[in-house]
């Protein structure tokens, strides 16, 4: 089991790191399909998210595609709400219900981006309502904390539709958003002594995503074609989400 998960985690990190994502929704989907304990799922997905996007944040910042003022505007409300969401006591049935909804929505968003979103340059709007986007970021942060995902899969389409910034800057902003929310989620779990870390299980997966993330962060989207990889993983996420909702 662990060898198969390592390969899948490596491929997910490789594909999504180039686009500014950590792959948390895919990690959770795979762990759910492998019937991993739900507390171990949340901790493992968040730790892997941090390991992948920390390299992406560095890469985007060095290349000038991470506007820090906008990054903090988006994260100011989301970080404390991600902590609160992770700290909230959730029963296993409630967690899987929320996760099923979150994964299903994530899969639909990914399918929309693949089949309906046009590949055209984004011309940023002259003025962006920072308060509105901050509130939206807060709502996504709360959901990410409760379910153990970074939230970038939801933030990125919102920013693109609102023409918040250029495509590369949005990727950088999403990467930063995932990083700070994943750390806040881990802090929330630590505060209630709910972090579950098994070196024999999580260690190999962590090494796999670090390797995949570092390679992906250094390759261009043209090489990896993450849009089409997203289409394949969207089917996996959709299957896992619907399966949880049915159960």
From TrEMBL:
Q: How does it sit in the membrane?
A: Multi-pass membrane protein
- Entry keyword rRNA processing: no
Query: What Gene Ontology terms describe where this protein resides (cellular component)?
Result: plasma membrane
**Alphabetized UniProt keyword annotations:** Cell membrane, Membrane, Transmembrane, Transmembrane helix
Q: What is its main location?
A: membrane
Subcellular location as annotated: Cell membrane; Membrane
Membrane-traversing stretches: 44-61, 73-90, 96-116, 128-150, 170-191, 203-221, 227-246
Superkingdom of this protein's organism: Bacteria
Q: Which Pfam families match?
A: TauE
Tell me yes or no: is Membrane among this UniProt entry's keywords.
yes
Family listed: Belongs to the 4-toluene sulfonate uptake permease (TSUP) (TC 2.A.102) family.
Task: Note the PANTHER family from the entry.
Answer: MEMBRANE TRANSPORTER PROTEIN MJ0441-RELATED (PTHR43701), MEMBRANE TRANSPORTER PROTEIN-RELATED (PTHR43701:SF5)
Name of this protein: Probable membrane transporter protein
**Species for this entry:** Chitinophaga polysaccharea
